Amino acid sequence: MSPQIRLLDAGDAALTVEFGDAIDPGLLAAVNALDAAVERLARAGGLPGLIEAVPTFRSLTLLYDPLLTCRADVEAALAPLLAGAGETQAASGRHWRLPVCYGGEAGPDLEATATAIGATADEVVALHAGTEYRVYMLGFMPGFPFMGDLPERLRLPRRAEPRLRVAPGSVAIATGLSAIYPWESPGGWHLLGRCPVRLFDPAAAEPSLLAAGDCVRFEPVSAAEYARLAAAVAAGELPPAHWRPEAAAGGGR
Amino acid sequence: MSAARPIGVEVLSPGAFATLQDGGRRGFRRIGVPWAGVLDRRLMRLANALAGNAEDCAVIECFDGGLQLAARGGAVRIAVAGHAALEIGSGEARRALPAWRSLTLAEGEVLRIRRMERGRLAMVAVAGLAPPAVMGSAATYARAGLGGIDGQGRTLTAGDLLPAAAAAEGPERVLPQPPGGDAAPIRVIPGPQADHFSAEALAALVAGEYRVTAEADRMGVRLEGATLAHAGAAEIVSDATVPGSIQVPGKGQPIVLLADAQTAGGYPKIATVISADIPRLAALRPGEPLCFAAVDVAEGERLARVAEACTRELLAAIRPLYADGVDLAALYACNLVGGVVHALGPDYRPLLDPRPQPADPKRSTL
Q1: Which of A99, A186, B167, B326 pairs as cysteine with B77 (C-beta 3.0–4.6 A)?
Q2: Is A166 in contact with A187 (CB distance < 8 Å)?
Q3: Where does the Carboxyltransferase domain lie (chain A) (predicted)?
Q4: Are the beta carbons of B252 and B230 closer than 8 angstroms?
């Protein structure tokens, strides 16, 4: 077991495997690799009583039923997986291209962000859309992706005054991360634009569009194109695979 | 008109707060979806067993009393688990009766949770209640519009009609000796971020008395009491939370996370309430005091097994209840008569049991 890995107590029904305490692509790869190994082991019947595993930036938490298993058994089953953990290359996530209408009503903080970093609005869009992001984790609310890393120049602290209402689909940045709000909610991130793609669909086999480890690129679209796409999404004409170039081309699942 | 109406119960008032819940939604925490589900599974299982449902059927979970239900379209069997004072009928015809038993509401008859005698949670099972499952569960998760009466996360409101089954023949059921109160400390297991706090913080958590603030709901319970000082920064890179996580924001006052809490968070978590004690914590009313005690993982696991054994004993103790009282022979056999007096109380009246009244005067009173 790599010396940085720690097993942390999370009650009588969960255990957290901690890889570090940073937002870092290397940690993401290690977390994703263990997550995949745990899923394989559970499918093979090697983790009876496991309810689910939750990957985050820094850790994988296993939630289990203490009436069906116990900490000692979970740890024993994990030991062989941890022996090789932390030394894996980046996981192969799916690739997404998501349209974003930047600025104006869709992105009320675009101008202020440009001013804050001493750039033009177009430069902010070019920086944001010119980066490929990894989904570190989902959380805060269902389907909410924490994606990184933002280019250094775009890194700003959260807004001093959080908004009480952020529109669903808002594409936002704060610190080293970017996100998309799947739902209307309060929020303290800087809103650069809006994405018409549905991020969460409870009726779908996979309710969340994005998964930890996926890669995301944003593609600037006009307000008119945004409206057209939003209408098509609402009409159910654009399935999730539409936003994955390799799947849309017939190359993926 | 009434003959054609679907059978069900109408919510005349949800009281303080009421939702449909079941055992919860598993498997989606990785995409940010908490389990939701009842805050006290034992109460759900007992209410369902009393009503004649499978143990994990959806129930109405209500806070702080005030819930009022009326049978529509026919007679409906209902059972309430929780320390609730009930009332049936309306106007002059009101009768008080205890919880921990099933009862059959005739069409139009009203059941009210008058008040909670202890705690704030009651589970109401309705025979045949089967709301639609969303992502594997009917549990209401309002924040993301999942589950509940409409499948879109709506909490119960006056006028809602919950489809139910026509009341079955046969005696009502009673739990002769309901679970007692327990003022013991809430047991916690230190971690996962106990090392983010000062050496004194864990000692302060278990030595001090805390009080439940007004911010106490299905997401969590904010406490006030001894300040828990962080050793370093009061924020961490986000890490998974679990039901029972005690997170401590910058001001040092703990928040215990419950069924609807977000699945990850950026505050250090000093300890985790053991699964066996989460229902007791969730039932505390704003203003009530509590204290914590630290245990290790093995003890937490043992207490989970003890709690489950206790629940199974309670389920096994459920007995038929006849119009003239209870099946005395069965109760004597189980040595539970002391509990019968408690369960039925001085204001017990037989409900709408179809069984004929017995003539034997020895059995006409309990």
Answers
A1: B167
A2: yes
A3: 5-210
A4: yes
* Domain boundary assignment for chain A: 6-83, 95-248
Shared domain for B109 and B191, answered yes or no, is no
What tokens does B268 get?
């250090």
| B contact set with A (CB within 8 A) | 26-33, 134-135, 143-146, 189-193, 236-240, 242, 244-245, 262-265, 269, 272-276, 297-298, 300-301, 303-305, 308
Q: Which CATH number fits domain A95-248: 2.40.100.10, 3.40.1190.10, 3.20.20.150, 3.90.1520.10?
A: 2.40.100.10
Distance CA B206, CA B225 (A): 11
Across the interface, do A13 and B276 touch by the CB < 8 Å criterion? no
**Second-level CATH architecture of A6-83:** 2-Layer Sandwich (3.30)
ipTM of the complex: 0.93
Number of domains in chain B: 2
DSSP, res A46: -
- The tokens for B239 are 């890490």
Residue B345 lies in a domain: no
Q: pTM for the complete prediction?
A: 0.89
The Cα-based distances of A184 to A2, A168, A192 in angstroms read 41, 5, 16
Q: pLDDT tens digits for A132-179? A: 999 999 998 999 999 999 999 999 998 888 899 999 999 999 999 999
B29 contacts in A (CB within 8 Å)?
52, 54, 63
List all residues 6 or more positions away from B195 whose beta carbon is below 8 Å from its beta carbon: B231
Domain contains B325? no
Please give the angle made by the CA atoms of B216, B219 and B222, to the nearest 5 degrees. 40
